[in-house]
Specification:
single chain; 66 residues; alpha+beta; two-stranded antiparallel ribbon; 2 helices; 2 strands
Length: 66
């Protein structure tokens, strides 16, 4: 999937928008090593990301897993 940045966004803000958790910024950086040097993004930068997969789905009914 692709996320298009807005002017001034930072990794933690983007992780929060995509995954709902700013701690996922490390995962985003690992998925986009060519952008790792950027602190604040210009508008229109494309960031590749994978959908988050729940870590523990053993106790979740199959119909709840999306």
């Amino acid at each position: 999937m692709i996320y298009i940045t807005e002017q001034g966004e930072m990794w933690d803000q983007i992780a929060r928008k995509i995954y709902g958790d700013e701690n996922m910024m490390e995962s985003l950086i690992e998925q986009n090593p060519e952008l790792a040097h950027i602190f604040r993004f210009d508008a229109g930068t494309e960031i590749q990301y994978k959908e988050a997969v729940p870590e523990n789905t053993a106790n979740i009914p199959a119909w709840r897993i999306v």
